[in-house]
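re: the backbone from monday

yeah here it is again, tokenized this time
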């Protein structure tokens, strides 16, 4: 059974999207991307306080 949708976290939105595309083995043009939450910087602007989270769905197969 193949996945039609994944939710992934990353240090940035782009990193999370890249991870999801690798997991689905699809190019960006074949998916719908929803940003669940953006990353939040930590103290003094350091990354990693809260990761970015995205939901990536295969176009045309969102509802299964």
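seq for it, each position gets an aa:
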């Amino acid at each position: 059974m193949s996945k039609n949708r994944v939710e992934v976290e990353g240090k940035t939105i782009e990193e999370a999207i890249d991870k999801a595309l690798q997991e689905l083995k699809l190019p960006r043009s074949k998916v719908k991307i929803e940003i669940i939450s953006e990353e939040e910087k930590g103290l003094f602007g350091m990354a990693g306080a809260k990761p970015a989270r995205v939901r990536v769905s295969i176009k045309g197969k969102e509802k299964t």
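Helices lie at 13-24. The chain has a mean pLDDT of 87.
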